Amino acid sequence: MSASLAIDVRGLTKRFGKRVVVDDVDLAVAEGEIVGFLGPNGSGKTTTIRLICGLLRPDAGEGSVLGLNVRTQSAAIKRQVGYMTQRFSFYEDLTIAENLSFVARLYGLKPVEEAVAKTLDGLGLSSRKDQLAGTLSGGWKQRLALAACIMHQPKLLLLDEPTAGVDPKARREFWDEIHRLAGEGLTVLVSTHYMDEAERCHRIGYIAYGRMLATGTVEEVVRGSGLVTYIVHGALKPEQMRALSAAEGVEQVAPFGASLHVVGTDREKLAAALEPLRREPGIRVEPGETSLEDVFIKFMTGAQERAA
Ligand SMILES: Nc1ncnc2c1ncn2[C@@H]1O[C@H](COP(=O)(O)OP(=O)(O)OP(=O)(O)O)[C@@H](O)[C@H]1O
Ligand SMILES: [Mg+2]
């Protein structure tokens, strides 16, 4: 690999009590890369992010973050990382400017006023600097949080569900900004539950029950899943629906608007399960593309079954 790695960790493991929450996780992220981190609730995304930025100490594992040892140089790592926590972490009853100046002092930026003014200007929030942070809209809160966590010019951004509950336009603007920052050389690891956001990343990693189940580009992850998808157009009767769901080879049946996505691993069995429907008037069956969501549902089901 020609580009150097901003994150290069192996075997990262974290236990809380007896529970292994992050289990032997390997992660390599190149400089300037945007990597999406996906997985069900409680799968260990936030914990992994905290291990990487030096806020938590791993029970096992090794490697480097920004060329620094993840086990022994956590203080130095923290100074060069921007970490946006899962929940809005500002003082809602302080103004926008007061919040930024708090962050500027935290990082020892000098002069504080200049750093704050520059950030406000970049955000286009100069005229609203005296507004209480708690009164900002969801989208603006996230933009403020992002601006605050790049004030000290970190080399690595760790964003933990930065756009949860934010409307599509604000989310798009947020992602434009992330791509702009990555274009300037910043490396980004971003956790999300949104499929469209996964598709905006250069690569993704999928974690369930603390284990990294797949990494790669979206295309690689979809291909690697080995799933086959057919699309059924037309209205199915309840008994047809039941028969299809129960048929051998059918692993998922999911409605998308007026059509159904029928997903399985074995192409022949899947085709055979759909055969009776092909003869029905008003119903059309055609090959479809497997979506990332289909793949994640399979991962989740598989991980649940293994855990049980
Ligand atoms: N400090 C802690 N002490 C004990 N258990 C914890 C602690 N932090 C997290 N956990 C547990 O570890 C597991 C993984 O949590 P984590 O927050 O990393 O998941 P997540 O993937 O970020 O989930 P979500 O998508 O809901 O944010 C959860 O079961 C959680 O309850
Ligand atoms: Mg989390």
UniProtKB/TrEMBL annotation:
Pfam families: ABC_tran
Highest taxon, organism lineage: Bacteria
Segments traversing the membrane: none
Domain ABC transporter: 7-234
GO molecular function: ATP binding
Keywords: ATP-binding, Nucleotide-binding
InterPro entries, sorted: AAA+_ATPase, ABC_transporter-like_ATP-bd, ABC_transporter-like_CS, P-loop_NTPase
PANTHER family, per the entry: ABC TRANSPORTER G FAMILY MEMBER 20 ISOFORM X1, ATP-BINDING CASSETTE, SUB-FAMILY H, MEMBER 1
Family statement: Belongs to the ABC transporter superfamily.
Protein name, entry field: ATP-binding cassette domain-containing protein
